[in-house]
Design a protein that fits this description.
Number of domains: 2
Structural class: mainly beta
Helix content: under 10%
CATH class of the largest domain: Mainly Beta
Low-confidence stretches: 112-123
Largest sheet: 6 strands, antiparallel
Length: about 240
């Protein structure tokens, strides 16, 4: 059975306030058959890991379910065991007012070999302030999910390259950049029409995407070729390749 995890999520207080008061989980079954998901939540105190959530849910074919969990801990982690590869899970935090505060990556456990922490707004998902959208990369489905940041409703999906890894947004131009590890390229999406307008060849196994909206440049880290592709956002072309230190 596939095991998906958030990795360790640090939720340390800043000026007496934690970034996330609750964890919001959306589970979507994209299969024509029912699917079950076991949800387990853990909080960590120093070296102790304690389970505080254990749920088992069943989703109808093409069904979607939303859940909220208490998250007032310094650090916590969630695990999801499902009987279907067609299940997609997204997770994000809400602050004490109920507003969106962070987006967390949910990935297969085998991709978390080095104990990576659940990233907020990176390595798989990001938030666009331009149109109040959340973009989540679905590496097993070769697409990204578009979610309304206010209502948390799924707006739709956009087909991109093979094994999308990270998403970056330019809030000035409202362009979305998706690194595709399997096809060694970057998909450029128009944030208003949700259509792929360009596909840019970069290095081998592109991962992180960093956008500088002031100069409209996009920096893509290529893991295997060990370099960084610099993209001109106006022309959608690679204008430089930088060696990683």
């Amino acid at each position: 059975m596939p095991l998906l995890i958030t990795g360790l999520i640090r939720n340390t207080e800043v000026l007496g306030v934690r970034p996330s008061s609750t964890l919001f989980v959306r589970i979507a079954n994209d299969d024509l058959a029912s699917a079950s998901v076991q949800i387990r939540g853990f909080y960590l105190t120093e070296t102790t890991k304690t389970e505080y959530v254990f749920d088992v849910v069943t989703l109808a074919p093409r069904g979607v379910a939303n859940y909220s969990y208490y998250a007032q801990f310094d650090a916590f982690e969630f695990q999801f065991i499902t009987n279907s590869d067609a299940v997609e899970i997204s997770a994000w935090g809400r602050d004490a007012t109920g507003a969106l505060s962070a987006v967390y990556q949910v990935q297969p456990a085998e991709l978390n070999l080095f104990g990576m922490e659940g990233a907020a707004g990176a390595d798989g998902s990001t938030i666009s302030s331009a149109v109040k959208r959340i973009y989540v990369a679905n590496s097993r489905r070769d697409n990204i999910s578009i979610i309304d940041a206010e209502t948390k409703a799924l707006i739709g999906t956009v087909k991109v390259g093979s094994r999308p890894f990270a998403v970056g947004v330019n809030p000035v131009t409202n362009r979305i950049y998706v690194s595709n590890q399997g096809s060694d390229n970057v998909s450029v999406i128009d944030g208003f029409s949700n259509i792929v307008i360009a596909t840019i060849k970069v290095g081998l196994s592109p991962e992180n995407v960093d956008v500088d909206p002031k100069i409209n440049k996009i920096y893509v880290t290529n893991a295997i070729s060990n370099n960084i592709s610099v993209i001109n956002g106006s022309t959608n072309t690679v204008i430089a390749t930088l060696r990683r230190k």
